[in-house]
Phosphoacetylglucosamine mutase
Amino acid sequence: MSIDDFSKDHPKPDGINFGYGTAGFRMKATLLDSVAFRVGILAALRSQFKKGQTIGVMITASHNPPPDNGVKLVDPLGSMLEASWEVYAAELANAPDNQLQAKVDSLVSKLNIDTSVRAHVVIGRDSRESGPALVAALEDGLKAMNANYNNYGLLTTPQLHYITRAINTKGTPDAYGAPTEEGYYEKLANALKKAVPDLDEPLKCVVDCANGIGAPKLRALAAMLDGTLSVTIVNDQYKEPPMLNMDCGADYVKTNQRLPNGVTPEPYQLLASFDGDADRIVFSYVDDKKAFHLLDGDKIATLVGMYITELSKEADLDLSVGVVQTAYANGSSTKYIVDNLKVPVVCTPTGVKHLHHAAEAFDIGIYFEANGHGTVLFSPAAQIKLQTAPEDCGPVQRRAIDSLLALSDLINQTVGDAISDLLLVLVVLAINRWGPEEWDSAYKDLPNRLDKVVVKDRSLFKTTDAERRLTSPPGLQDKIDEVVKMFNQGRSFVRASGTEDAVRVYAEAASKAEADALSGRVSQFLHAFQ
Ligand code: G16
């Protein structure tokens, strides 16, 4: 059957312009059938372009509500789809039904793709109700291209990234691990035991899994780590899709700055919250007065930054360390990293692809968005230095090198991974013998607030300076600047979301009341666009 034949079952809805945003295509699941079908075609083309290397496709809408879904591509080494192909993805998704074959032909000729190469694609999905139907549409696109594909079923997003990289590096000096879900657990379990060889008691945490796919996957890993890891998993109803991300999970906890439903932690007990596809994590705890404290992506970056900086000094291998953040990073965290850790900070636009790219400039690049999405990258040069350091160096140096090597396996370097990041944080806390309060005491967040405003056309909102300033609509940035000046330590910015049909407003200031007031004033400016 030809592309046109398959396409008849997947007509493009009228009047919609699909865009490949911060995390691929994402919207109401009912609108995504034709997109999933065409992403199947695109994934096959991308694999052929990459000489038959395996491409990943993940069906997920991560933190978004249950009726949404999304689809994104994963490149051979587990990174996000190369930016130049995002344009082709959108072109293919928006081609009229009767011009789809012509669009494919024009991409083949423009990119000089050898269509005699057999394409290889792996597929994963989160626990949403709409997932199986979208996978079926995707498979039709792959069949239309005569691609070879393997559907792994339910996975976390980072597991699909891991599997994609593991397949493509198998049998090479850069082999990333066994290319299976089991291989993922084995790699993490072995690395964890190496990272904390002398534990007095298991690493402990209560984990809110947002009623998503992270719950069974974390449980599977914990089963292999009896005596090393003891997790209490809550909000684990992944077989009840309407409960996904509902009043729980990383996005809820971060945005509302409150505990998720379904949890009543003891004072100073560490609580972690994953998002729906387990690629983000934030932590929290309550104190003895039941006050809530958030330990978000900024706090993770500073904790991990502190530990890695110490280890790098002790390893004495001349490794550069840097931290990458976005405009959402709390001003206090950036100040702490620069002034106390003496580590350079780079700011990029929102979206893992931007942070990931910037982190690659360092030997060890730590990147975290405030919302808890992040990881640590070890450059190939750093890996070689660590692997080839003399065995008989001093004991402190040797221990530091071994710890960095264990971390480089424990950390999922393809993308932010809630499970891997959970283990990383628990390791650093255990080594320092810290609880959440000691972790939190490094610096105090400036009070802040993140709001969402639905406007008629979010594409009007264009930014510059790593999204910290608006260039459009005309005049709006001047108004924001004027109002920010009125607040002590005030900072605020507005940007269009790439995953939701809304504009986001961030504000921070010296007190909670001021941060709330600043956010309110800036949000008011947006009423004119509603
Ligand atoms: C995705 C991206 C993140 C981004 C988040 C929110 O996360 O991977 O990099 O921070 O969306 O983006 P925006 O503010 O543009 O909506 P996830 O966890 O939803 O895949």
Remarks:
- The chain has a mean pLDDT of 96.
- DSSP finds 18 helices and 19 strands in the chain.
